[in-house]
């Protein structure tokens, strides 16, 4: 059997029973592909089920408030995906009359959709022979063909896309694309793959050259940026204060406690003399204490957020405060959600 036939045969015997594999509805395929970007299936599955329960059609998603969509997405990370998802749902619903585009060239024009997602939707839903190339596919191809071109280089992206185009099963592109992704996720795993039971082990270039651990090659990321967040958890008798992140930055449109950010770790004297703190306090009396002496380090792909929570008890009533009992209704970064759970307002 050829490479693609072997992969597809393995898939039919070993594929996981996943809900998006029981449909060719482009809305649900699109939803699953966006959710599973940089996310494990085990983590993304509950979110997928929750979304299709709340929004069974693309129009339901389009008509939902953005805050509600972000709240359902909370904990999945990469919140720009959720905002793009919502914007695209509105575009398809109100500008395309709920007709999801049916070709790769049209699908890739949608906001938040790149080559991989457009290829997946076009092939799975519409049988277009457009090859998917995600992390799993890069790994399978790099190992099997013993290719050490960096997968995140311009040359590598072009090379592996061309290779994938040559290999795709043009008679059954939907099955083949899902098969090679599943094969990379479960058989040709990043760490310690069981090459002894691999159906490709007799012809795998990396296995023959003992290079499984070396491939695929990836150029190292740039320097990690460190940011220092100080959240002011302001409370009166039964209220606290939240603000929405408006700037184009991480967690855009999510809610947070008032924030003081600096290029270094701040102490109490720095906090209470900061213009932001003085602006919030006015002439009111307060007590301040540090909740966590050791900063919580929240690691994102290109930056580490060093976070301290300062509890500020106010005399009098907060201006524009919300009831502490309602705080869990707001979409917040998981960092704050964890604090809220632990602090027990």
| Proportion in β-strands | 5-15%
Q: CATH superfamily name of the largest domain?
A: Hypothetical protein, domain 2
Percent of residues in helices: 40-55%
How does the helix and strand content classify structurally?
alpha+beta
Distance between the termini: 62 Å
Which residue ranges are poorly predicted, with pLDDT under 50 across at least 5 consecutive positions? Answer: none
Radius of gyration, CA atoms, in whole angstroms: 24 Å
Put the structure in a nutshell:
The chain has helices at 3-14, 26-35, 41-54, 58-63, 66-73, 79-94, 104-107, 115-126, 135-144, 154-167, 173-186, 205-208, 268-272, 275-281, 334-343, and strands at 225-235, 239-240, 243-244, 255-256, 259-262, 286-290, 296-299, 303-314, 322-323. It has 345 residues and is of the alpha+beta class.
Task: Describe the secondary structure blueprint for this structure.
Layout: H1 3-14, H2 26-35, H3 41-54, H4 58-63, H5 66-73, H6 79-94, H7 104-107, H8 115-126, H9 135-144, H10 154-167, H11 173-186, H12 205-208, E1 225-235, E2 239-240, E3 243-244, E4 255-256, E5 259-262, H13 268-272, H14 275-281, E6 286-290, E7 296-299, E8 303-314, E9 322-323, H15 334-343
Parallel strand pairs: 1-8
Antiparallel strand pairs: 1-5, 2-9, 3-4, 6-8, 7-8
């Amino acid at each position: 059997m050829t490479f693609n036939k072997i992969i597809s045969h393995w898939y039919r015997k070993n594929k996981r029973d996943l809900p998006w594999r029981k449909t060719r509805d482009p809305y649900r395929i699109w939803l699953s592909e966006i959710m599973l970007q940089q996310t494990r299936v085990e983590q993304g599955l509950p979110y997928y089920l929750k979304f299709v329960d709340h929004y069974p059609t693309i129009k339901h998603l389009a008509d939902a408030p953005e805050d509600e969509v972000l709240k359902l997405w909370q904990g999945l990370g990469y919140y720009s995906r959720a905002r793009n998802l919502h914007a695209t749902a509105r575009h398809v619903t109100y500008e395309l009359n709920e007709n999801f585009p049916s070709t790769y060239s049209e699908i890739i024009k949608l906001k938040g959709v790149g080559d991989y997602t457009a290829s997946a939707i076009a092939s799975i839903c519409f049988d277009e022979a457009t090859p998917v190339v995600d992390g799993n596919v890069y790994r399978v191809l790099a190992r099997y063909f013993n290719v050490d071109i960096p997968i995140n280089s311009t040359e590598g992206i072009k090379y592996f896309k061309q290779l994938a185009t040559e290999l795709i099963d043009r008679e059954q592109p939907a099955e083949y694309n899902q098969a090679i992704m599943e094969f990379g996720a479960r058989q040709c795993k990043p760490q310690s793959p069981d090459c002894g039971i691999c159906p490709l082990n007799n012809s795998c270039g990396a296995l023959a050259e003992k290079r499984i651990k070396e491939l695929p090659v990836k150029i190292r990321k740039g320097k990690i940026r460190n940011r220092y967040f100080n959240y002011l958890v302001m409370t009166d008798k039964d209220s606290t204060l939240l603000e929405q992140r408006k700037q184009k930055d991480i967690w855009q449109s999510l809610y947070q406690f008032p924030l003081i950010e600096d290029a270094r770790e701040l102490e109490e004297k720095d906090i209470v003399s900061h213009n932001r703190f003085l602006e919030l306090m006015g002439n009111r009396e307060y007590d301040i204490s540090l909740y966590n002496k050791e900063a919580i380090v929240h690691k994102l792909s290109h930056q580490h957020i060093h976070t301290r929570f300062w509890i500020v008890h106010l005399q009098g009533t907060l201006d524009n405060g919300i009831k502490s009992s309602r705080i869990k209704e707001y979409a917040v970064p998981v960092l704050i959600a964890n604090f809220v759970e632990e602090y027990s307002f």
